[in-house]
Here is the input.
Amino acid sequence: MQESVFIFNYNRARKAFIDALLPPKSSNGSPVMPFELEVVEAALHSRIQRFDDRLMELDPHVQALLEVLPNKLTADILEQLRISKQTLIC
Here is the structure.
């Protein structure tokens, strides 16, 4: 019985995966993203924009708390920071 070894070349698999996702070229020669990937990109962009808006809204409040924190470490300030963090996560 002859023994065989199969070697997985991840570079070839990655290229094959990308080639399967993207059509070769559009009419002007540039690669075209499939519609599904465009939808995912739009959804991610929308979600990131919401996170950015929340961050810009909370940033002044958090900066003020962080400036006070070294001089006045209280449970109230830590609780306000925790609530601010939770607001960003949800």
